[in-house]
Amino acid sequence: MNAIEVNNLTKIYRLYNSPKDRLREMISVTGRKYHHEFYALKDVSFSIEKGQTVGIIGKNGSGKSTLLKVICGVLQPSGGSVKVNGRISSLLELGAGFNPEFTGRENVYMNGALMGFSREAMESRFPEIEAFADIGEYIDQPTKSYSSGMLVRLAFAAAINVDPDILIVDEALAVGDMFFQTKCTLKIKKIISKGVTLLFVSHNPDTILSLCKTGIWLKQGEIIQIGDAKDVSSGYFKQFHAEQNINLQKQQSGIEESLNYETASIMGKDHLSFMDGGDVFIRRVASRSGNDPGWIRNVIVIDSNGNPTNGVEFKDDFLVRIYLEAKKDMDNYCIGFRICDNLAIPIAHSNNIIEKLNLPDLKEGDRYIYEFGVKNIFSPGNYSVMVSFEKIVIPNLRHIIVDNIEGGEFFEIKKPIDLTNWFYSKVFASNGLKVYDAGDIG
Fold first, then answer.
1. β-pair partners for 335
2. Strands (E), 195-277
């Protein structure tokens, strides 16, 4: 018997241009429709066996949260059916199911009652819930006074300590701090090892891979791919970057000249990336800051064959190419980059000062390409590039950030062989392996 069966599930919302249109439709004697239909889910079908771990991935608005809410009974479907066999414990929206006027303790008991537990049964579980949440004296304060992190701590602790048959989690772990995320992940792994069915939603492919064996990729309310979590995550990642970098091949043409240095170079001033890359780049950037943003026009990763890429082969060196257009005259500046892991934690960096390369003064309207060679010592996984352009006030002591880009480019270091468990660190340390027969050493 399956834990969850979803058949031809559809969820339609009626959207109106204004509240007046809703009223007009209600009182219309001709039956005129003033709304248009939005399909949050469209003919979705799949089944999950008992004990199976399934991750759902997709961009915002793809229907992930709507699907979970229908499965949990929070929303009614417009069509199709959902069948659930077993007790569900869920973490959906932050604080969902909590009465903000109740204390944390009272909300835990209320949550247990909704799950069918008596007060005596919850009293025996409460010490473990309280210890896991670790919010101290706030357990007896109204939850309306909680921070988002405290809410998710209590909600998670309450959800996993009621012996669920099915655990459903909708990106709740993104709110907690790093230590609590690790604590939750280990707890989830422990309970799924006991045969609990897991349905997990996340934007992070690495999180999906660490917890789930099966993946479902949703896009605009429809299933694009379902199967092995590694294959689904890889397909999602490739499609995401294909959409973001549709103009990369076009941008690559038109390089007129280059001046190569040992580890960094400044290339020709005229390049299509300055024009065609603008809108694509702006949409791709995760965040931008500085006292005069707009100098950095594009960031591209170049593979060992000289082609723009979002998938670098393991141990193949690559280039980080930065495009800059001067908004005004400037001398004494610094440009550099950082490679960040999937959690946006910087793990490697370089700049022209480290490379001991003096840069030419900039005149308003000048266009330059700065190209850094990168030794690929990174483990397989997903990475992003952060770029910073800074005005040097006091060398090596005080810099003013002019334009800082986070998530300027994204790329994947591919696995050389197919292993379920690959690397646990972000850096691959070995530069070769030798084996000696100790008997041959005098």
1. 389
2. 197-201, 214-219, 222-228, 258-259, 264-267
What would the pLDDT profile of 292-330 be if each residue is shown by its tens digit?
888 899 999 999 888 888 889 988 999 999 999 999 999
Q: What are phi and psi of 42, to 5 degrees?
A: -135, 105
Q: Are 215 and 278 in a shared domain?
A: no
Q: Examine the domain organization and report whether 162 and 271 are in the same domain.
A: no
Question: What is the C-alpha to C-alpha distance for residues 249 and 306, in angstroms, rounded to an integer?
Answer: 11
Residue 190 has pLDDT above 90, yes or no: no
- What confidence tens digit (pLDDT) does each residue in 219-240 have? 999 999 999 988 888 788 767 6
Whole-angstrom Cα distance, residue 146 to residue 175?
13
Domain boundary among 242, 274, 296: 242
Rounded CA-CA distance 111/358 in Å is 64
Number of domains in the chain: 2
Asked if residue 235 and residue 278 are part of one domain, the reply reads no
Q: What is the mean pLDDT of the chain?
A: 82
Kindly state whether residues 314 and 397 are assigned to the same domain: yes
* Domain-embedded: residue 426: no
What does the alpha-carbon distance between residue 322 and residue 337 come to, in Å, rounded to a whole number?
A: 9
Host domain of residue 134: 51-242
pLDDT in tens, 83-107: 999 989 888 766 667 899 999 999 9
Q: Could you tell me how far CA 428 lies from the centroid of its own chain?
A: 23
Single pTM value for the model:
0.58
Residues 77, 166, single domain; the answer is yes
What pairing do the DSSP bridges indicate for beta strands 264-267 and 287-289?
unpaired
